[in-house]
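[SOLVED] Need 3D model of a two-part complex

Original post:
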Amino acid sequence: MIRFAAIRLVEIMAMLVLMSFVIYALIGLMPGDPIDLMRSADPRMSTADAARLKALYGLDQPLLLRYMAWARQALAGDLGYSRLFAAPVWQALLPRLGNSLLLMGPSFVLAFAVALGLGTAAARRPHSRLDAAINLFCFAGVSLPTFWLALVLILVFAAGFGWLPASGIATAGSSDIADRLRHLVLPATTLILVSAASYTRYVRAAMREALAQDHIRTARAKGASEARVIMHHALRAALVPVTTILALSFGGLVSGALVTETMFAYPGMGKLIFDAVMGNDYNLALAALLLATAVTMVANLAADLAYAWLDPRVSYR
Amino acid sequence: MNVFRETQRTRRCIAPLVGLLASVAMTPVSAAEHDVLSIGITQFPATLNPSIDVMAAKSYVLGAALRPFTVYDAEWKLACLLCTELPSIGNGLAVTVDLPEGKKGIDLTYTIRPDARWADGVPVTTADVRFTYEVGRNPQSGVSNAELYRRITGIDVKDDRTFTLHVDKLTFDYAAIHDFMLLPAHIERDAFAEPAQYRLRTHYNTDPTNPGLYNGPYRVTEFVAGSHILLEPNPHWAGPPGRFRRITVRTIENTAALEANLLSGTIDMIAGELGLPLDEGLAFAKRNGEAFQIIYKPGLVYEHVDVNLAQPALADRRVREALILGLDREAISQSLFAGRQPVADSFVNPLDLGYTGEVPRYRHDPARAEALLEASGWRKGADGLRRDAQGQKLSFELMTTAGNRSRELVEQVLQSQWRGIGVDVRIKNEPARVLFGDTLPHRRFELAMYAWISSPENVPRSILHSSEIPSAANGFVGQNATGFTSTEMDRLIDALEIELDPNARKTLWAEAQRLYAVELPSLPLYFRSDVFILPKWLTGVRPTGNQSPTTLWITDWSAQP
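Solution:
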């Protein structure tokens, strides 16, 4: 297993190097640059100023040279400066990462907990009314556009009843934790509803398959309680395919949720990555996207390692 | 990106829900309670340094926190904010000087208001003027618009308050020094120790709540990147005091969410400078207009269709005239924008000092449009479309910025109206950055609908002078994307820049507008309007329609019972 993990880690490193170039090249291939955008906002900005600023920001250099310069800097531990946030990359990234983890982490855990409960309940009584109701919830959650759900929640709970704030991370000038939590409720609810609906379908399918296995029938025949059958025997088997889905979703913890963040004006990683890519902020976009890529790949490696624990038949060569 | 377009499409479905809940949401609050104000805008400033980067959000926030020397006010007249008097040749504060090679320059004397102080109590002095000039002149400092600093060849300081700028070019707007935004030397000097690092180390980035950075009626006391900026009164401000204890400028980029936040009371108003587009503002007014005061202000954003004059059919002036005669722009403005966007006859806004109404006006006249097309050899076929003698169809590609719903709607009307006179138009839209970053500079278009942003009496050098045609030779810079070449227009532009006599300048402006309206290098559509959605209790907000944000006069804002 150690050899397997070591090889995968080397693969991950190679993939990150490759990805860094691909991301850099893709952003570079987009037409226009930050100075062109600046010029379109200021009709009085002269051609000479545009040329001077392009040189100052290094935008007059060929793409490959710019990438090599970035790579040298990055290897020395300096991820550079974010033009959009007017701050060093880490200084721009860390508060957003913190905000995203605060929103996405609990949402992820709660969505999975809801999905586990609903999926298991539906799998135990397939084609029952309960199963139909849970299926309806799943289809609604998967089908409803996130922005629409977010808007409805804002209109009902912020505009309509006035119970919760409609946007932002905190009231201006407030450092109250309760205020911060109140600002999390609506975006987190949006994410939980959408994610739980999706996860529930996987859990239900995996659990149905697991409950149909011979060893479950044997366990029941041996007189094991239903709770033990579910928790000890079926759930473990059902978690193998679900783990793959969760691992793939794990990257979302650091890549954020663009639509939800935009609708709730929540400054998280999703919006940061979007703005960085659209604003040609190479340094910031690279750091954020590579971080998301790395987390996703490491989560996949963790999932691969977890398979052996969940299913003793799995071995690593 | 698709998600946002989908947001717009679905807005109509959400509208009834918004309306229903609005009645629940809007509970009147007495004016006496309004000592705080929350403003919603759709953009967050990357930096608050007044000299680095150009962003409307930055101008909006700094309008309340930093005084420029000069601005254009709501009457589009030049006004002093940080200075005591505008220099003019009449009052002797502006003196023309002869320079080598027959050039003319000008010396301008300004005096800083005696009561001006930074919010840490330090007086604003000529030391700040010298420092700002030093930063502006340094090519490494990252100042975005350095044209003014290049023109200033030197500064003479008379005392702590009075200084003279020596400018090497005499232009009609010599007294306007909007771009000379003072930087506090006592705070920023250390950040400028290495000029190339200044844009990274400026305290406006590293310590944006430092009171010494602001000299306006308010100062920034909280800066949460991407979320909000909190403004509180500057204790050392000597002018009329601001009426609000706290002002929060909150960024909500999605306009549907911006509306919902307004209805929920999270924000009190939506700024017109960075708020809802007109069509959304009109829809909002229909649903909730009674609960708010809504101001529509037409401004300097000029929507038009650029015509690529390199395209053989479009090079024929008669075809261009037929295209504009085939459009019912008044009906478009009425039906899509409730008449709030005045139809344009040329690129100059009727509020501008240079405006003349004596230009050819193209009212909807499809019969004349068809006659012009016939005369230029484009005959109508059985399918209703026109072809030339070789059987080639009169067909154009019309582009605009993809995802801009207003423009996409207008585009469809243009297509339909032009089809009525036998012109086939195919719509091909591109994302804004592709259109502006690639297609227009390389002149790879036939018809392109977009807007020019200008300032009062803005001489149209960049858009109409022949030296500004983008080409491989000049690295595809310049904004004359139509390829308009006219020695007469070049002469008028050159003369406009240096003519000091207002009457003579007005004549030049009139000639330039007439030439533009006759030659039609682009087809004028209308001047875009901003929508200001304000609470009923707020008074004193006066939209300018020009680039000066309303926040420059924030001390006039107050809550009324």
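Edit: The first strand of chain A starts at residue 81 and ends at 82.
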